[in-house]
Design brief:
Radius of gyration: 32 Å
Largest sheet: 2 strands, parallel
Number of helices: 17
Strand content: under 5%
Amino acid sequence: MASSNNDHDQVKAAGLFERLRGKIVEFGLMLKKLGQDDPRRIVHSLKVALALTLTSMLFYFEPLYDGFGIAAMWAILTVVVVFEFTVGATIGRGLNRIMSTVVAAALGIGAHRLATLSGNQGEPILIALFVFVEAGIVTFFRFIPQMKARYDYGLLIFNLTFCLISVSGYRDEEVIRLGFERVSTIIIGSFTAVTVCVFIRPVWIGVELHNQIATNMEKLANFLEEFGDEYFTVSENGQIRDKSSSLQGYKSVLTSKGSEDTMANLARWEPGHGRFKFHHPWKQYLKVGTLTRQCAFKIEALNNYLTSEAQTPQEVKSIIQGPSVVISSECGKALKQLATSMRKMTKSSSNDPHIAKSKDAAEELKAVIRSSLCKLPADSLHIIQEGAVASLLFEIIRCTEKIADAVHKLASQAHFKDVKPTVTPDQENSVNDGPHHVIAIE
């Protein structure tokens, strides 16, 4: 009996060990994938470690520690809360922390000195009144959208520093020394974090915003280029074929407003780098992003017809197939050209012929629908349903044209490079395939 119990315990322990081993292996694979997906995360971790090591030197060297004392801990805390993944976020937090600390420390010392003039009995009352008024006003400022977008962290630190300086001065007469040490160490911590972030493999959030806007346009272009084949093509048995999962990439564009606004606000803190100058038109990026989302909502409505269970008969679909395929394909090509020119930061008008072709196809589609309603009154209901699809395609043409105008304006404001127009193979063939005239000379 004892041996069977021992065997049971050994099996149980072995099972527990295997589960623990499986969890460790799973965690290791997750860490590996996390680093492989974006190697910059590994670099960022090492950069934070380096910045913390540098600021901790304030404790290791006696001359530095004698100058700052225990207040040197504020430099380490500053690195922890200031150092972010991108340069814009790090500089924004660092400047917010420095300016709010300097101003709040000065006001805190002033409030302490003013309160001491009222005597021992009036001092705590005045300090409490100053803290109440300051905290109420600054907290209310955090509800202002413009202040919250760029200075929310600074207002938070302002509240904290003012209270610490003014209140601690009631028990510590060396309030000026306390404020000076705190400001000095916070400046040291912020400067260390910003320096490491900028000069060692920097990640520019302005570049991230630039690439995201271009990627969003490419996602819309991919849907439009594949829409014609997916909507009008049927399988051999006459059933609507399965919709491609690659068509769902546009859905991430619908929820991109929050990230774009955040990146644009942080990009304004970044210094000039590469083709991105200090006064780069980040607001125009937001306009392009807004127009791209509007187009994505039109595509979302178009996708509902693509995935609807109640499909229009194929013979009715074939009526609008030709011009509809041209519209979706040409709009997709135009958006893809715009995305490419944005990535290369070049001025390009190669998308204009695609928009012109889509407009010509739209006029043809309108004429086809009008004539079909007269010729096929029995199928009027299905034709009207296809007319709704055509109406969405017309809206997408207008959205594409607005996006093109916004991108051209961005290219002008950001001083993108001029590119000489080239003759594409399609344009060359169209020239060669034109009518030939024979001129006889006597």
